[in-house]
Amino acid sequence: MTRLIIVSIMTFVFMLTGCNHSEQAEDNRNLIKLNSHESTEQQVSNEVKDIVSNKQGITNVHAVNTRELIVVAFEVKHFKRFNLTSLRKKVKEDLEMKFPKQDIVVSTDKKVILELSKLEEKLESNSITEEKLNKKLKEIKKLSEEET
Amino acid sequence: MNVADKKKKKLPPQAQEYQDFQKDKETKRPIFINCMKAFFVGGLICLIGQVISTFYIYFFDFTEKTAGNPTVATLIFITMLMTGFGIYDHLGQFSGAGTAVPITGFANSVISSAIEHRTEGFILGVGTNMLKLAGPVIVYGVFSAFVIALIKTIFTKWGGF
Predict the structure, then answer these.
(1) Which of B65, B156, B161 to mutate to probe the A interface, most A CBs <10 Å?
(2) What is the ipTM score, two decimals?
(3) Are A90 and A76 within 8 A, CB to CB?
């Protein structure tokens, strides 16, 4: 009985210290700056990444753009997840001010992050055409707007 | 003072003495251990749910928002098999509320009563008894959702949050 209590208390302590550790961890933002290629110019995305990653609590940013559309997805520190909606809104407002001509989609969804990072890899290795990029980005936009 | 204590006062002194004696001797409910079991088994079920949800996000075209429905369906399906094979009963016996609170507990209550009343026929047996246990969950679930929605509306409309 007492042993079980001790074990459970220790488990709690370990769990709590685990949480603290992740809180104190230094943020290691690993932004992939994409090389600009004529047909799939990614200068805007690189700018977007700079703007968004400077905000507090954001740990990682993925962004891909076409001529009309910018899709941004970011990850936040775990405890900042409570402010996810307001953070998304703020990022979107800021980006809309900066890039008024393009359509901007901001998401924090895991799937969008996943798809964008795949797309970033393809762009980096120059293995995607403009047409395919447009199509894929539209698909991601549709995915991010999906409701249950 | 609760009802039981009031009743106890009216009892003859001998009976009161006996009750005290009995209270002293009876096995105490291990509340803390039960809570720990419920916490870990319930957490394990949620972990499995999270793994399934992540699986759907990574391998299919589901987002975090839309992955919820297939995840719940999968968990219910697994529970159905486990209830049918009699595994879930043992798990429920071991961890109590840990298996009752997640969606799997709800699924178990529906499926076990369907199995129990199968001999009474499909309409009057299975049909009428299937939601006997799950019915209150739906009723109070809907009612509490309504109350929470009311509170939220008041906060957002008047509180300015």
Answers:
(1) B65
(2) 0.71
(3) no
